[in-house]
Amino acid sequence: MRSGIPEHGRIPKYYAVKARIADLIEELGEGGLLPTERDLAERYEVARETVRQALRELLLEGRLRRSGRGTVVAGPKLEQPLSLASYTEGVRRQGRRPGRNLIGLEQFPCPPDLAPGIGAEPGEPVWHLERVLLADDERVGLESTYIRVARVPRLDSEFQPDSSFYGYLRDRLGIVFGDADEKLETVLATPREALLIGTPPALPMLLIHRFSRDQDGLPLERVRSLYRGDRFSFTTHLKPE
Fold first, then answer.
1. Dihedral of the CA atoms 7, 9, 10, 11 (nearest 10)?
2. CB 110 within 8 Å of CB 127
3. Which of 28-32, 144-148, 197-201 has the highest average model confidence (pLDDT)?
4. What's the CA gap between 240 and 231, in Å, rounded?
5. SS3 of 100, please?
6. H helices then E strands: how many in the chain?
7. Residue 13: which H helix or E strand, with range?
8. Whole-model pTM?
9. What is the structure's pLDDT at 6?
10. Lowest mean per-residue pLDDT among 7-11, 152-156, 225-229
């Protein structure tokens, strides 16, 4: 990998400081407490604003995180596979404890633009399930699921909101997923989303739109999942066509 230094050899002062702080991060290890901005500025003989810019990038990259006692070294990012496996299964595979906090579960008439993706008629009742995603009690994302009420008529009485929705469909209703289409993009959270996830609005997010079909090829659900860009990466396995 290239070190990030351009061919002419000149780099911004903050980037040189960032590289030195990155070395310090390796020494401290996960959970290690970083010195204050003032201490870092004195150590590297630069202005505090230079240190602040370097720290800002390291925070956005997920190398550092804020805590009640200052800035500490973050753990590795969660690797979520781009597959039909549920969020619960993906987090458990990495030795973390998955969870979800319910924001809302409501019915509303299906708008025309949503109807084809979930196999509904315009105006037909659909569920909207919105939950905050957790990993070891840390808020890491926000998930909205849309599905016809006719497919899951007792969702509000049978489903445990902190459990796997895919597990409920499979184990309780016998619905098996067939395939899905996904689109992944980078976005900024809205003020509401940032408040629910507990992040600053300027933090880049990874947004996944998923349209799923069941084992018979019938449209099943639409999911909009928003993940913290500093805590998640996504993996997939590619094969030649």
1. 80
2. no
3. 144-148
4. 30
5. strand
6. 8, 10
7. helix 13-28
8. 0.77
9. 59
10. 7-11
Is it the case that residue 166 has pLDDT exceeding 60? yes
Which amino acid would we find at residue 162?
Answer: D
Q: Tell me the one-letter amino acid at 161.
A: P
Which secondary-structure segment (H or E) carries 22?
helix 13-28
**167's tokens:** 């597990």
Whole-angstrom distance, CA of residue 226 vs CA of residue 172:
27
- Reference 166, options 238, 225, 232; nearest CA is 225
Give the C-alpha separation, 90 to 77, whole Å. 13
Return the ∠ at Cα 184 (arms to 188 and 174), rounded to 5°: 120
Rounded to 10 degrees, the C-alpha dihedral 185/186/188/189 comes to 50
Alpha-carbon distance of 233 to 186, in angstroms, equals 12
- Per residue in 61-116, pLDDT tens? 878 888 877 888 888 777 777 766 667 777 787 778 889 999 999 999 999 999 99
Residue 99 CA to residue 88 CA, distance in Å, equals 7
What element of type H or E holds 54?
helix 48-60
Per the document, the length of the chain is: 241
Q: Strand (E) positions, the chain?
A: 64-67, 70-73, 78-81, 98-109, 125-135, 138-148, 177-188, 204-214, 219-228, 232-235
DSSP β-bridge partners for residue 109: 125
What percent of the chain is modeled with pLDDT above 70? 93
Give the span between the Cα atoms of 1 and 140, in whole angstroms: 29
